[in-house]
Amino acid sequence: METLVVLIPLLLLAGSAISGILALAKTRGHEVPDRAISWIACTGPVLAFLFTVLIFNNMGEGQVLVAGYDWILAGGAWIKAGFAVDHLTMVMLMVVTGVGSLIHVYSTGYMKGDGGYARYFCYLNLFMFFMLVLVMANSLLLLFVGWEGVGLCSYLLIGFWWADEAKARAGMKAFLVNRIGDAGFLLGMLAIYKTAGTLNFQDLRTFVAGNPEAFLQGSGFFGVSLATASCLLLFLGATGKSAQIPLYVWLPDAMAGPTPVSALIHAATMVTAGVYMIGRMNFLYALSPTSMIVVSLVGALTAFFAGTIAMTQFDIKKVLAYSTVSQLGYMFIAAGLGAVSVAVFHLVAHAFFKACLFLGSGSVIHAMDGEQDMRKMGGLQRKMPITFITMAVSALAMAGIPPLAGFFSKDEILWKAFSSELGHGWFLWLLGIAAAFCTAVYMGRLIFMTFFGSCRADEKTRAHIHESPKSMTGVLAVLGVGAAVIGFLNVPHFLGGHAAFSHYVDSALMAAGEEPLAAETGSVAVELSLALLSVMVAFAGLMLAWRWWVKDPSLPATYVDRYPEVYELVHDKYRVDEFYQGAIVEPLENVADGTLYKAIDRKGVDGAVNGMARAFRWLGARLASAETGNVRTYVAVMIAGILLVMLSLLT
Amino acid sequence: MTWEDTKSLMPLLGPFLAALAILVVGGRKERGPNPLLPLLALAGFGWTLVGVGCLWPLEGAHDAFAGGLRLDGLGLVVALLVSLGGAACTLLSVDYLKRRGRNLPEFYVLVLFSALGMMVMGMSTNWLSLLLGLETMSLALYVLCGFLRDETRSVESSIKYFLTGSFASGLFLFGMGLLYGGTGSFEFRDLGGAMLDAQSQPLIVVGVGFLLAGFLFKIGAAPLHMWLPDVYEGAPTPITGFMATGVKVAAFAAVIRVLSEIYQHEHVGLRDVLWWIALITMIVGNVAALAQTSVKRMLAYSSIAHAGYLTIALVVMRGAVGENGAIDFSGSLAARAILYYLLAYLVANMGAFGVLSYLEKQGGKGLAYEDLAGLGFKHRFLGLVLSVFALSLAGIPGTAGFVGKFLVFGSAVDAGVGTADSSFVLLAVLGILNSLVGLYYYLRVLIQLYAKPLAEDASTRGAPLVGMGTGLVIVASFIGTLWWGFGADFLNLGFGVEPAMRMMQGALATLR
User: Fold this and answer.
1) Does A309 share its domain with A392?
2) Residue A212 lies in a domain
3) Which of A24, A596, A646 lies nearest to residue B287, judging by beta carbons?
4) A507 with A640, same domain?
5) Quick check: B212 contacting A, CB < 8 Å?
6) What range defines the domain where residue A611 resides?
7) Considering only CB atoms, which chain A residues are within 8 Å of B287?
8) For the segment A386-411, what is each residue's pLDDT rounded down to a tens digit?
9) Same domain, A325 and A449
10) ipTM value of the model?
11) Which of A459-463, A583-587, B191-195, B255-259 shows the lowest mean pLDDT across its residues?
12) Is the pTM of this model over 0.90?
C-alpha cells in the first residue's frame, strides 16, 4: 500500500518526463505519432486513478498511510518530506486523479493537431504530479512545494501558445499575484515552525492539542495571538491560490490558456488548494476565532461580488471564471465556519459540474471556430445535443436545483452559516443566498444565450458548427452524470440521508469522540424551510434569466440604460484591476524602468555623497589618472560607507 | 613543521602542486599550450576533493603553522566548495578560452592560486594568514579579470577591481594594525576577550570597523558594492562565476570565524550596523538588477542581493553559552544556513554562468535578454537548465536555492520570535519581500526563453555544440540544484539534502 502511495505521483512524473523527451525528439525532426503521445500521457493519470481506488478499497477506518524521508534539518529536528494519506487526502486524490484522467482524455481530442501536442501533455502531467504532492504532503513545507509547483505549471500552461504576447502576460500576472500570497504563506509557515518546532501535520496537531497556550500567546504584531497571525498569513496564501478577495484578479485573465487547462487547473483542482490547506490546518484555525471570521467573511464577500460580475460578462469562459471565484467563496464560508467536510463536499461537487461546464464551453468554442463571445452564439442546442444536455445539467446543478449535486452541497453551506453560533452567521447566510440568486441568473443566462434562440454567428462559422468528437463528448457525459448524482453521497439527515461523505472526511480531521466544530442550532423544520427557500431563489433566478434572455432579449438593455453607472461598474469588474494597475503595477514598473535604480544607485548616492566626496577629492585625483571617473566615485562611496559604519559603531 | 602540519595541509597541496606542475610543463610558445593542462588543474582540485573526503569527518581540529591555519570542519567545507567551483571554472574555461583564442597556461595557474588563497582564508585563525590568503586570492583574480586583454571591458574590469581592491586591502591592513595595537595579538581568539571592554577602547572598535568594511567589500555588500557590476561584467564569464561563488565562500567562512569571536561579548552596535547593511544591500542589488538589460549584469547585481540575504544570517547569528562561559557557535542555525546557502548558490550560479559562457559571443555580446528570446525552443536542454538555475536563484521550492533561503529566513525568525525585539523578524520579512522583487528579473529570463518567438538570427543557427567541459558543468550543476533542493539519499551515496545538511552541521562542530 505504501508503495502504491509513492507510485501515484511518480507515475505522473514519469509520464511528464517521457512526453517531454518526445516533445524534444519532435523538434529535432523525428516522427512521433500523436497517438503514441496520447497513450503515454493518459496512462499515468488513469493508472494513478486505479491505484487510488485500490487504496480506497483497502484502507481501514481512520488509517493513515505514511511514506517519507528526511529532508531539511531546521533547528534541531529533521523535517520529513513524505506522503501521508488519510480520508481527506483520499477525497482529494479521487478528484485529482479522476477528473484529471477525464480531462487528459478530453485533451487528446481538443488539442489534436496542435504543434505543441507533446509539450502540452508534458506540462499537464507535471501539473498533476505537483497537485498530488500538494494533497499527499505530510508537512506544511512539502505542501508548499506542491503549491509552488502547481503555480509554475499553471503559468506554463496559461502561456501555452507562447507566440501570443497577451497570453504570456496573463501567465505572468497569475504568477506574480500568487507570489504575494506565497510570501504570506511562507511567513505563516515560519511562525508556526518557530512556535511548534515542527511542520508535520500529525505532530502539529498533537502539539496544538497538547499545548494550545503556545499558540495563544501574543505574536508581537498588533496584539494578535500567534495562532491568529499564522492563520491569517496562511490565508493570504490561500486567497492568492484560490482567487479570493483581494488576490482574485489573476484567475479571469488565466482563461487565456487552453480550455481543458481552465477546467483542470482553474476549476477542479489547483484553485481548491487553498480550501484543502485550511481544511488540513483546521485544528489551528480552531484556536483563532478571529481568523475563522475573516476566512468566512472574505469567502462570502467574494462569492457575492464575483457572482454579480459573472452576470455582466459576455466571454463564455470569463463567466465561468468569475463563477469559479464565486463558488470558491462558498467553500471558504464553510471552511471558515469549521465545517471542513461541507467545504470539501462542495469542492468535489464543484469539480464535477464546473469541469463539465468548462469542457462543454471548450466544445462550444471548438465548434464556433474559436469564438468565445456569447453574443455571437445562440441556438446551438440542436447542433450540439450532447454538449447542450451535459452543460444544462451541470448548470442546473450549480444553480442548486434538487436533486442535483449543487443543491446538496450549497444548501449545506448555507445551513451551516445560518445555524452557526457565531454572531455573523446571518450575514454570511444573506450574502450566500444573494450569491445563490446570482448563480442561478448567470448560469441561466449562459445556457440561454448559448443554446437557445436563433444563431447569431456569421455564415461561415455557422457552417462550421458541429458536435465534438467522441473523446470529448464521452468525457462530458461522464462528468454530467457525476454532476447529477454525486450529491447523493451526502444526503443530509433532515432529508433522510446519512451524510456519509461528511462522516468519512470528518473522521480524518477529528480525534475519536470529538464533535464537529460548527455546532448546529435550530430545528429540522427551519432547515427544511431554508432549503425550500434556496430552491425557490434558484428557480426565481432561472426564471428571470429566461425572461431576460429568451423571452424578451431587449429587456436587459432597458435595465442597463436605466442604471448605466451600476452596470458599468459591475461590468468593469468594480475596476479593481485598474486600481491595482495604478496603485501597484505601474509604480513597480517605474522601479523596473530604472527610475528608482538610477535614483538610488547612481544619482542619489552620488548626490548624497558629493559633499563627502569633495573632502576626499585629493584621493580621487590620484586614482583619476589611472582610470575613468567612475572608480573615483566608487571609492568615494566606499569611504562614505566606511565613515557611516564607523560612526554608528562608535556612537 | 610537523607531520600533523603536513596532514592538515593536504587539501591545500592539490592546487599548489598542480599550479607548479603547469608552470613547468606549460608548453612552448611555438607549439602552443599543452592540451593536458586543464586536466592537471582538474587533478589539483580532485586532490583537494579526495583529501576532504579522506579527512571527513574530522575528530577535533588540527592546527598548523603555529596556529596560523586551522583545519577543521569549516575549513574542509570551504576547501570542498572552492574546489568544486574551481573545477567548474576550469572546465568552462577550456571551451571559453579556445573560442576567445586566449588558451594560455597562466590562466589555469592563476585559477589554482586564487583557489588556494580562498582555502587559506577559510582556514586562517589569525590576521596574518587571513591577509596572506586574501592577497593570494585577490592578486590572481585581478589578473584573471583582465585576461581577455584585447577587450576593453575586460581590461577595464581588471583595473577597476585592482584599484578598488587595493583600497580594500588597505582597509584590512589598517584594521589589523589597529587591532594588534588594541589587543597585542594577531589571533582571532584574543579578540573575543578584548571585546569585553571594547566600549572603552575605540581602537578596537575602529579596527573591527575597518575589518568589517574590508569583508563587506569582498562579498560585495552595499555601500562597498559599486565596483562589482563593472568587474563582473567585464571579466571572462567563467571567472565571473568563480568570483561570485568562491570569493563569497571564502569571505563568509572567515567572517563566521571572526564574528564568532566578536559576538562573544555582545556589542549591540555591530548587529545594528549589519542589520542596515543587509537591508540596503538587498534593496540595492534587487532594485538595480530589475533595470538591467544584460543577463550577465543582472546576475552581477543579483549577486549583491544574495550577499544581502547572507548578511541577514550574520546579523542573527547566535550561540549557546558553553561550559567555560564562552559562547559556542557550533550549533548556530544561522551559520549553518550560510553554508547551505553558499552551496546552493554555488551550483546554481556556476550553472547559469556556464550557460552564459556558451551563449556569449565575441566581445561579450549575445548576453542581453533579447538574445535569449525563444531559445528555450531552439536549445531545449539549455533552456530547461537555465530556467532551473534561475528558479533556484529566485528560491522556488524544489530547488537548492529554496532550502538555502528557507534556512536563512528561518534562522532570522528563530532568533527573533519570542524576544521583545522584533527587528530580526522584521528583517526576515523584508528579506522575503526582497526575494519577491528578485523573482521578477529571474522570471524575465524564463519569459524570454519560452514566451518570446525565436529571433531569426543566422548566427544562432550555426551555433557550435556545447563543449564537453561546459556540458559537464551544466549537467552537474543541474543535478546538484535539484538534488540539493529535494533529493533523498536513496542509494546512500552521500549526495542529497540530508548528507549536505549533516555536513554543514559537522562543519561548525569544531568551530572554536
Assistant:
1) yes
2) no
3) A596
4) no
5) yes
6) 575-650
7) 591, 596-597, 600-601
8) 889 999 999 999 998 888 888 888 88
9) yes
10) 0.79
11) A583-587
12) no
